[in-house]
TrEMBL record:
Lineage of the species this protein comes from: Eukaryota, Metazoa, Chordata, Craniata, Vertebrata
Organism of derivation: Salvator merianae (Argentine black and white tegu)
PANTHER family linked: CENTROMERE PROTEIN P
Protein name, UniProt field: Centromere protein P
Pfam families registered for this protein in UniProt: CENP-P
GO BP term, pick one: CENP-A containing chromatin assembly
Any GO CC annotation of this UniProt entry: chromosome, centromeric region
Length: 169
């Protein structure tokens, strides 16, 4: 399943809500429950849309003033059968009434046994801080790995069936 940058950004913008540090003022428990249900629904949609399942998430406020906010993120996730971890800082600056967000200090940990090109790709993404490129590429890579595993399992099953004493159907 491939999505264009425009489709992804449009979806993310439509789902964008205030951050957890700035919750909407709710006067009652039902309103809080409704807000939580909306956030859980958004998270579920994003996980289905991307194929990425968030298993652990932390965010820590590092610095905040009138023009700049720095937050440190740590995420553990799975993209189909490929587990990975991310750590980065998000620097949000208010310049000329425009919010500009920049990813810094990106560190990606992923098991890439036998995939030297993936290690090279991760190094380039860490240098550029391009999270959108990482998530899109990892999604495609994970899908390809799934197809590869199913294909190898199919041929393994066929080779077992063709062996003497194997059941050829």
């Amino acid at each position: 399943m491939a999505y264009s940058d425009g489709e992804i950004m449009k979806t993310v913008k439509s789902l964008k809500r205030k951050s957890p540090e700035e919750p909407k003022q709710c006067d009652s428990f039902p309103a809080l429950k409704h807000q939580l249900d909306l956030l859980e629904s958004d998270l579920s949609f994003i996980m289905k849309f991307t194929g990425i399942c968030l298993t652990h998430y932390t965010r820590k406020l590092v610095k905040q003033n009138e023009t700049k906010t720095v937050q440190k993120y740590r995420l553990s996730e799975n993209c189909q059968s490929v587990p990975f971890q991310l750590e980065f800082q998000m620097v949000e600056q208010n310049q000329n009434n425009k919010n500009i967000s920049t990813v810094t200090g990106l560190s990606i940990i992923i098991e890439s046994e036998g995939y030297s090109d993936l290690s090279k790709f991760i190094s380039r993404v860490e240098e550029s801080g391009n999270l959108l490129l990482f998530f899109k590429s990892l999604s495609c890579f994970s899908e390809w790995c799934g197809h590869q595993k199913r294909t190898l399992a199919h041929f393994k099953k066929l080779s077992i069936q063709k062996q003497p004493g194997g059941n050829l159907s």
